[in-house]
Sequence to fold (400 residues):
Amino acid sequence: MKSSTLAKGQSLKTFINGVWKDHPIFSMILGICSALAVSNKVENAIAMGAGVTFVLLATGILIAALRRLIPTRVRMIAYMIIIATFVIIVDRVLKALFPDISQAIGPYVGLIITNCIIMGRAEAFYIQNRVGQSLIDALANGFGYTYTLVSVAVVRELLGFGTILGFQVMPEGFTKWVVMAMAPGAFFVLAIFIWIGRSLAGMEEE
Amino acid sequence: MKDKILMIVFVLVLGSILTAALVAVNFYTTPIIEKNEEIATKSSILKALNIPFNQGEVEQIFADNVDEKQKDGITYYVAKDNNIAFPYSGSGLWGPIEGIIAVQPDFERLQGITIIRQEETPGLGSRIGEAPYLAQFEGKRFSEGLKLVQPGRSSQDNEIDSITGATMTSDAFIAILNENLQEVMPAIKQGEGQ
Fold:
C-alpha cells in the first residue's frame, strides 16, 4: 500500500468527519453554550469562530507534537494548561486589536477554555495522531464550528436587528424580533439547524 | 518512582514555558490595551460634552478642547463652553454601568449622558445605551433629582421616559445618575468657585 495515497484518503476523511459527520455542534451537541451566547451578531460569530479555530489549531499542533512525551496520568492537566494559554493569548490580542469585538463577546472568549470541542478533540484525536492529521482535524472542527455559528448568527441578526454585519438589510419600519437577539432565539434557530443537519446526514437517535 | 518524577518535571517544564509565553504576550499587549481604554473614555467624554470628533483624532481634539481638573479626589473635565463632564458608575440590573455625565454651566441641567460599559439584557435593558434613549437627557433639570415616568409620558423638564420591558434597568439607571450627580456636583461647584 502506498503510504501517500493512504495518508491523503485519511486526511480527506478526517476533514469530512470534522465538518460534517462528527460535526461538533450538529452531531455531538458540544460547545453550544458559547454558540448560543455569541451568535446574535454575525461579526461576533466570526470573531468567536476565528478564536476557537486558532485555539484548536494551536492546541492540536502542540498536543500532537508532545503526544509521546505527555504522561498518560497528567494528560488532562497538560490539555488544560495548553488550552488556557492560547485562550488567554486570543483574549489579549482581541482586546488590543479589536476592542469593540472584545467588548461584545468579552466573557465568552475566556469560556473557550471550557469549550468541550477543544477538550474533546484533544482527548479523542490529537493525543493519538500525528501533527499533520491533527492540523486537518483542528481546521475541520474549527470550520464546522464557525460556519454553524455564522449561519445561526445570520438568521438571528437579520430578524433580531434587521441587519447583516451591521448593514441595514430589512426595510425601514421592520419590527425587530427581540427574542432573536436574546438567548432563547438561539435555542430556536440552533434546534432548527440541528434538525435540518441531522435529517440531511440521515442520523438517527439511538 | 522515576515515572512520578518525570511526570512532575513534565508538568513543571510545560507550565513554565507556557507561562513565559503569556508573560511575553502580556508585555506587548498591555500598553495597547491601556491606550484603547483611554481613547474609549476620552471619546465618551467628548460625546457627552457634545464636541464633534473623528475616530483617530480623539486625543488631539480632547487635548485642544478639554481641561482635566481635580477637587476633593474627584476628577472632572471642563470644556471650552464651560460644560462639565465627569465619570459615573453604579450597579445596573445584571452588572456595573459606567459612563460619563456632562452638565451645563448653570449646574442645573444635563448636557449629555454616555455609557462606556453595561451588561444589561441584550435588546431590552441594553437599549439604555442607544443614542435615541440617551438623547432625551439633554437639557433635563437634575437639581431636584431626575424622575422616571412611563414610556412616552415625560412632560416636565426633570422627567425621563423608561424603556418598555426593561423597568428594572431603567430604575437602576436613573438611580445611578441621581446618586452620582448628588455625590459629585458639590465638589465640582466648589472647584469651579460657585
About this structure: The interface with chain B takes residues 40, 66, 69-71, 73-74, 77-78, 81-82, 85, 88-89, 92-93, 95-97, 99, 103, 160, 176, 178, 181-182 of chain A (CB under 8 Å). Residues 14-201 of chain A form one domain. The mean pLDDT of chain A is 81.
